[in-house]
Amino acid sequence: MAELRATDQPAPDLEVLKKAAGVRAAALVESGMRVGLGTGSTAKYAIEEIGRRLGAGELSGVVGVATSEASDALARAVGIPVEPLDPRPLDLAIDGADEITPGLDLIKGLGGALLREKLTEVQARRLVIIADHTKLVTRLGEKAPLPVEIARFGFLSTIERLRALGLGGRLRQPGAQPYLTDNGNYIFDAQLPEQFDPAELGDRIKGTLGVVETGLFLGMAERAFVAAPDGVRKLT
Ligand code: 5RP
């Protein structure tokens, strides 16, 4: 077994980093705002902090729009009033990501909420991404697959069509049954090629019969707070 030397740093606790990023983004929320509430283990900390600020009287009149059933339940539990998405813009949306490039293009959806996230965040005046430093990549697909939400009906045929585009990958199936999104769809986790044009490939995937939405979020994020052991960095 390896020995821990006095000079070794303890492994950074990713939860501490996620919380630091979440709290930083929650500080952008102002009274009266309509805020998109993201999904996942990092967005959770932002939702909790917004709830804490409301409870402490630092904020009032904030309303959330949740991007998943889980975030809806968490928001209500911490005291954030939640309303459905309607055609009005959101002042701000705060969400995590699975990959972040230096240009703030994103892969999202490992948490399975990509469709509601995109529907919500496209209406936000500002989309702020929160993450720990392990999510930084130089190109999309470097570490994570690209989640693609597909209709259940005819899903095997849809997957064939995706493979014909040159995509590897597999249907998300954590247990005996395929993973089911909040919208009743399946997810195909696509392995991206080493070199590709994200916008062009995104259009081809989106144009494939049976595909509902992809986890490519291109040009949507205004900034990202990325937490590392030496502090939280703002990327714009
Ligand atoms: C859910 C998402 C999440 O934001 C993404 O998966 C990051 O999650 P986490 O903060 O748990 O790593 O896109 O659909």
TrEMBL record:
Enzyme Commission identifier(s): 5.3.1.6
Residues binding substrate: T39, G40, S41, T42, D95, G96, A97, D98, K108, G109, L110, G111, K135
Active site: E117
Molecular-function annotations in GO: ribose-5-phosphate isomerase activity
Keywords recorded for this protein, A-Z: Isomerase
Keyword Isomerase applies: yes
Pfam families xrefs: Rib_5-P_isom_A (PF06026)
Top-level taxon: Bacteria
Catalytic activity: aldehydo-D-ribose 5-phosphate = D-ribulose 5-phosphate
Pathway linked to the protein: Carbohydrate degradation; pentose phosphate pathway; D-ribose 5-phosphate from D-ribulose 5-phosphate (non-oxidative stage): step 1/1
Protein's job: Catalyzes the reversible conversion of ribose-5-phosphate to ribulose 5-phosphate.
NCBIfam families in the cross-refs: PRK00702.1 (NF001924), rpiA (TIGR00021)
Subunit relationships: Homodimer.
Protein name (record): Ribose-5-phosphate isomerase A
Organism: Deinococcus petrolearius
Lineage: Bacteria, Thermotogati, Deinococcota, Deinococci, Deinococcales
